[in-house]
């Protein structure tokens, strides 16, 4: 006698009605994100989906710029994913960050470099790490702040990229102090030069307000 779970026809196979849409959304997310290890990333994707957590997926496909070297690892799109996943917490554990970093198939060497640059311990201030991530992408402090504005803004893509001035102050002050070559009076002078203009914009600052200035 055949075992009771033997399939005799296709009609006996029960396909959940939501499965096609789940697979469609997964495929679109994979295309946008372009993970180096689709199996590892896929496991992280479905784990996050099952828990109702932020998915490790980019909002849109990123096209490498002509000057980009072979594989720079972190990108603005991937940093934005990390920010969406970790920003609800003011501080994150090193283990949590390592797990999210691995889920996005990013190189461990780059993570270790950023952790070393920031002198982070077991508990990591997320916005400080975020600032370092922007610095790795931008090169100079002001270029890093431009990246930060473009990631953090609620403006549509290509817009003014406004963020709260308080957030800008925190990011700039941290990067300037970490740089070690910018005197405190120069930091204070730069921020003061922006305050009057920011006051006219309801406490918001945009890239055009600072990007052409000296750091």
Automatic annotation (TrEMBL):
Natural source organism: Chanos chanos
Family of this protein: Belongs to the ropporin family.
Keywords associated with the record: Cell projection, Cilium, Flagellum
Major location (coarse): other
Alphabetized SUPFAM superfamilies for the sequence: Dimerization-anchoring domain of cAMP-dependent PK regulatory subunit (SSF47391)
UniProt subcellular location: Cell projection, Cilium, Flagellum
Gene3D superfamilies in the cross-refs: cAMP-dependent protein kinase regulatory subunit, dimerization-anchoring domain
Top-level lineage group: Eukaryota
A GO cellular-component term linked to this record: motile cilium
InterPro entries: ROP_DD
CDD domains (UniProt xref): DD_ROP
Protein name: Ropporin-1-like protein
Gene name of the encoded protein: ropn1l
């Amino acid at each position: 006698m055949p075992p009771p779970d033997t399939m005799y026809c296709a009609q006996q196979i029960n396909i959940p009605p939501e499965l096609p849409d789940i697979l469609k959304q997964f495929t679109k997310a994979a295309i946008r994100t372009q993970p180096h290890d689709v199996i590892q990333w896929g496991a992280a994707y479905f784990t996050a989906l099952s828990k109702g957590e932020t998915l490790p997926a980019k909002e849109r496909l990123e096209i490498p710029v002509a000057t980009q070297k072979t594989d720079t690892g972190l990108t603005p799109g991937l940093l934005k994913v990390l920010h969406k996943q970790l920003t609800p917490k003011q501080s994150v554990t090193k283990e949590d960050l390592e797990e999210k970093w691995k889920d996005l198939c990013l190189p461990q060497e780059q993570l270790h470099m950023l952790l070393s640059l920031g002198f982070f311990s077991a508990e990591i201030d997320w916005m400080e790490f975020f600032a370092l991530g922007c610095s790795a992408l931008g090169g100079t402090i002001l270029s890093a702040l431009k990246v930060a504005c473009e990631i953090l803004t609620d403006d549509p893509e290509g817009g003014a990229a406004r963020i709260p001035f308080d957030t800008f102050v925190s990011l700039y002050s941290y990067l300037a102090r970490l740089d070690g070559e910018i005197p405190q009076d120069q930091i204070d002078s730069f921020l003061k030069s922006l305050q009057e203009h920011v006051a006219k914009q309801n406490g918001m600052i945009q890239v055009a307000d600072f990007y052409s200035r000296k750091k």
